[in-house]
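Please fill in the sequence for the structure shown.

STRUCTURE ENCODING:
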């Protein structure tokens, strides 16, 4: 019995030691990742910088920050992200539901968000690094190479750019998680993480479901072939099983995905109204890019700032939309070694993946194909390239450290090619390149190459490998600090009366305390502190407007603006994303419930008869629009939409206050048609103030209002149309006297309800489209998910 007890104790000791190692190693890796993160972002953690950029990274200030603040306020006062009148003329926020998980700063009170952004980013870097570390370990790499790979990914260009373009950081985390989940399923046969990874990727945006599918469709078959050889039938069966589990992840997130997809597909971008929105028309399939494009792409492999930083960038396109493939110089040096010591099958797969990342660079059309011809971005493609480069180069580094495997001739040739690219005597290259950075990159390459050669000569490859990693991390920190330490908002500015903390705060507070009705405010300048104008001030200051900067502006909002010529077809791609709304059109602004105007240059409003000056707040002037029209106008006549669209611009704004435009005659209810001659006569003979008085007298009397529920009463002498000055959306439901009433599209893109003559109680309520259908799919999928965990926790793989 004593011998048996001794054996049990030894077994327990062994298990305990194994558990300690199992948990200590990730903890140690996390500490290293955090240490490097602190060194890279030291000025944000210990200095005065805030992760809100004033240069080309202004999206952090003008897009991400306003949405974070608005969501923070929204979930406290309204609940689950739904409809908001602070975005354009009204917009569903449901597609941002994933931000509740991916952007945890939205759970903080608004005053803490700016300072907390750096901690959110470092958390994402930590998660991405740990996931990639485990992914490389599952591929059989040793501790040193796995740690190096984790650092190179967590502080790659894609992640450091992601410090201000937050979508890039989210890309990195969610796609790394998908890669890790696939590897876990293949190596450990545990499929549990795969549906979770897919579900989380779709919460970034529904488009990320597609990006995850692309990644898995290329990686999983290749990895199965690498591990099990060319067994088409067996590999296909495993791929199908994994695809089913991935599809289960889509089902798990259906409660969000369905409604989110509706918002995206019904936006100016997702609907295809603006094709190739960001880069213009796609090139021909085998057309080459310019020499400028190729030089930029090559040089950006050495450093994100090799040809300029931020607004000082001198390369193709701009600082963000060019290649983001920098992930350290050591991976470039070791990439060619991936073929050394590999078997024939691995070499073939290396060639395949290198070709897959080379083709979209050589022939840009294939990059447009990746983005379904909605732009020629490098963003996700650069991340895929980083995955390939790191997986191959870190495998080679692992072989070097463990087995001393290296080909010095290949290393010398690679070193020579890299130096040749950095110091190429071609004038066009030398005019672009930052020579100081080029020489520092040269020093790092020389040191790394020398250490590898010395380690090989002395048979101390393990020591040399660790030293090379240390040098590479120093290089990574040095180059990344250049990338992230660009002009930003400072912590001091957050407490000064500038930017989003200017006197607009007092103006809006006083307006809202004295006026409880629905109204919009026209603000003719942007308070955003960046050197690009801000269009989302309404979200930060908490008022309603008609401006909006978003890649997914409501399609009907854009259609209405196009119809009234507030957006020109000549600048459709720009103005549909950076929309000025109706700020430059006084009568249209009046029609859209503008009651107040804020200006720093008051002359424009002082000269207009309909505006009266109310108060001055520092250099901000507040005016009231005496011609204000309330929310919810009624009309008893209509004109056909095609007639309205053919009117000149000046006539359209007048027509909107006289009548309503309807496309389908079946939607007119009891309204009679107003001929063009009759409309012209009304415009000529009826003074505009009288018309506005008539609209106000018969408008909806709002009794209760919030973002998703509007209640009021109305009295009509005859059948009419109740028009709400907000974009049509299928999520809005109308009830007249408690009975369901159909909503329809009027005035090209606004929301209307046909109402019979008499006095009625009217209620509008908003529920994201497909919410119930998505919830049903999620419940079913969750049941299947739990059943599969219980019955089939591991997947069958080929022998």
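FILLED IN BY: designer on duty
SEQUENCE:
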């Amino acid at each position: 019995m004593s011998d048996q007890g001794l054996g049990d104790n030894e077994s327990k000791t062994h298990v305990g030691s194994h558990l300690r190692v199992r948990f200590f190693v990730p903890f140690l890796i996390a500490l290293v990742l955090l240490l490097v993160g602190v060194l890279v972002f030291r000025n944000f953690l210990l200095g005065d910088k805030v992760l809100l950029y004033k240069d080309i990274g202004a999206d952090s200030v003008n897009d991400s920050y306003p949405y974070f603040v608005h969501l923070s306020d929204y979930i406290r006062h309204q609940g689950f992200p739904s409809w908001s009148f602070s975005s354009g003329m009204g917009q569903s926020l449901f597609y941002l539901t994933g931000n509740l998980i991916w952007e945890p700063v939205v759970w903080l009170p608004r005053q803490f968000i700016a300072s907390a952004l750096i901690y959110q980013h470092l958390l994402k870097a930590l998660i991405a690094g740990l996931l990639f570390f485990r992914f490389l370990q599952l591929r059989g790499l040793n501790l040193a190479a796995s740690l190096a790979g984790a650092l190179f990914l967590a502080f790659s260009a894609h992640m450091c750019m992601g410090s201000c373009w937050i979508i890039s950081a989210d890309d990195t985390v969610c796609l790394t998680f998908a890669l890790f989940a696939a590897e876990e399923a293949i190596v450990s046969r545990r499929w549990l993480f795969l549906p979770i990874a897919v579900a989380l990727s779709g919460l970034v945006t529904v488009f990320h479901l597609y990006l995850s599918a692309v990644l898995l469709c290329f990686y999983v078959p290749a990895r199965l072939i690498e591990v099990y050889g060319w067994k088409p039938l067996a590999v296909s069966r495993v791929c199908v099983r994994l695809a089913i589990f991935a599809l289960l992840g889509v089902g798990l997130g259906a409660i969000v995905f369905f409604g989110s997809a509706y918002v995206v597909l019904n936006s100016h971008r997702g609907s295809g109204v603006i094709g190739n929105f960001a880069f213009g028309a796609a090139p021909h399939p085998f057309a080459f890019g310019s020499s400028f494009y190729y030089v930029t792409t090559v040089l950006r492999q050495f450093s994100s700032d090799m040809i300029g930083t931020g607004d000082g960038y001198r390369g193709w396109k701009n600082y963000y939309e060019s290649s983001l493939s920098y992930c350290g110089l050591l991976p470039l040096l070791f990439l060619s070694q991936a073929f050394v010591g590999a078997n024939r099958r691995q070499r073939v797969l290396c060639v395949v993946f290198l070709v897959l990342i080379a083709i979209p660079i050589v022939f840009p059309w294939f990059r447009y194909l990746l983005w379904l011809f909605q732009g020629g971005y490098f963003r996700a493609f650069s991340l895929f390239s980083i995955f390939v480069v790191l997986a191959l180069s870190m495998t080679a580094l692992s072989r070097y450290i463990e087995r001393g495997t290296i080909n010095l001739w290949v290393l010398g040739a690679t070193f020579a090619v890299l130096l040749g690219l950095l110091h190429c005597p071609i004038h066009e290259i030398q005019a672009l390149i930052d020579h100081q950075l080029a020489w520092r990159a040269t020093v790092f390459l020389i040191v790394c190459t020398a250490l590898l050669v010395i380690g090989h000569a002395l048979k101390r490859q393990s020591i040399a490998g660790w030293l090379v990693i240390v040098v590479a991390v120093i290089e990574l920190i040095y180059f990344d600090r250049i990338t992230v330490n660009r002009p930003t908002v400072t912590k001091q500015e957050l407490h000064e009366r500038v930017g989003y903390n200017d006197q607009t705060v007092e103006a809006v507070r006083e307006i809202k305390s004295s006026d409880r009705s629905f109204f919009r405010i026209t603000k003719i300048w942007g308070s955003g502190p960046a050197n690009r104008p801000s269009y989302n001030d309404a979200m930060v200051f908490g008022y309603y407007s008609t401006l909006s900067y978003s890649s997914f502006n409501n399609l009907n909002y854009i259609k209405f603006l196009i119809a009234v010529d507030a957006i020109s077809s000549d600048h459709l791609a720009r103005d549909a994303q950076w929309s000025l709304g109706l700020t430059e059109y006084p009568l249209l602004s009046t029609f859209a419930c503008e009651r107040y105007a804020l200006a720093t240059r008051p002359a424009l409003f002082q000269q207009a008869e309909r505006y009266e000056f109310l108060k001055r707040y520092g250099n901000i002037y507040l005016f009231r629009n005496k011609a204000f029209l309330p929310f919810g106008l009624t009309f008893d006549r209509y004109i056909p939409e095609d007639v309205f669209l053919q009117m000149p611009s000046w006539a359209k704004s007048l027509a909107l206050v006289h009548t309503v435009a309807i496309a389908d005659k079946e939607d007119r209810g009891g309204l009679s048609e107003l001929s063009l001659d009759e409309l012209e006569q009304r415009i000529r003979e009826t003074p505009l103030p009288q018309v506005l008085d008539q609209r106000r007298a018969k408008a909806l009397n709002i009794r209760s209002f919030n973002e998703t529920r509007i209640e009021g009463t109305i009295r009509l002498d005859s059948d009419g149309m109740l028009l709400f000055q907000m974009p049509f959306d299928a999520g809005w439901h109308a009830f007249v006297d408690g009975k369901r009433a159909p909503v329809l599209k009027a005035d090209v893109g606004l929301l209307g309800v046909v109402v019979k003559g008499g006095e009625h109680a009217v209620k509008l309520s908003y529920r994201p489209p497909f919410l119930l259908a998505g919830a049903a799919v999620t419940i079913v999928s969750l049941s299947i998910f739990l059943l599969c965990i219980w019955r089939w926790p591991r997947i069958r793989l080929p022998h």
